[in-house]
Specification:
This protein has a single domain, classed as Vaccinia Virus protein VP39 (Rossmann fold). The chain is 24% helix and 25% strand. By secondary structure, the protein is of the alpha/beta class. The protein contains 6 helices and 7 strands; from the N terminus they run ααβαβαββαβαββ. The longest helix has 13 residues.
Length: 224
């Protein structure tokens, strides 16, 4: 990233975007929802960098016990309120914390899900993050990462995510987790409302009007 984003300002609606941040699409990312529906997730689940936590809430409604962690207190307050409103507070809990130095959860989770967090971290924070969530995982736990691929954003983007190549992703993750698969995927976002930005081509939009952007989906596990 050219600069570190003020995540709490973004969730308060005071950032550079008009209205909801582009990543808040009001539902789980379709790539991860497909894994959930295929039975790839096991309770208890850590939703790393969960934001407004639509994935956490969907999993909790399906009977999973989920802990969402995000650096934004505003996002965590909104997620907790949504859980209470939906009667899910016993299944879904939320913690405002730095995921790169997470403590107090050693060996707890059977699944760790990263829904577009990895590319939001400074490159120098990746090792701390991967070590942190690995420590929080149980032996045999699954790890799933949905991350922007190189080329998802124009090369002249001044402030954007730290996109990865497949090799870069593999080299970052493999010292901590055993990688099972990395495949091309899509991240769905709201169309950003930025001054002077032209509308995207229709073939880049899904049937709900979300922008589809190139990504990777990594599946890995912690050795027993």
């Amino acid at each position: 990233m050219a600069e570190v984003m003020d995540w709490d300002s973004a969730y308060r609606g005071e950032g550079e975007f008009e209205g909801e941040p582009p990543w808040n699409i009001g539902e789980p990312q379709p790539e991860l929802a497909a894994l959930w529906r295929d039975g790839r997730f096991r309770s208890e689940v850590l939703d790393a960098g969960c934001g407004h936590a639509e994935l956490s809430l969907a999993l909790a409604a399906d009977g999973y016990t989920v802990t969402g962690v995000d650096i934004s207190p505003t996002a965590m307050a909104a997620a907790s309120a949504a859980a209470a409103e939906r009667g899910l507070s016993e299944k879904a809990s939320f913690v405002a914390a730095d995921i790169t130095a997470l403590s107090g959860f050693d060996g707890r989770f059977s699944t760790v899900v990263d829904s577009t967090l990895f590319h939001s971290l400074p490159v120098e924070s990746r090792a701390g993050y991967l070590e942190s969530v690995h420590r929080a995982a149980r032996p045999g736990a699954g790890f799933f990462v949905l991350v922007f691929a190189k080329g998802a954003f124009p090369a002249d983007t001044e402030q954007g995510p730290n996109e990865v190549s497949e090799i870069e992703l593999r080299e970052a993750v493999s010292p901590y987790w055993t990688i099972d698969d990395i495949r091309p995927a899509l991240i769905h976002t709201n169309v950003p409302k930025l001054p002077g930005m032209p509308p995207p081509p229709l073939d880049m939009l899904d049937d709900r009007g979300h922008l589809r952007m190139q990504a990777f989906l990594l599946s890995a596990h912690k050795e027993p």
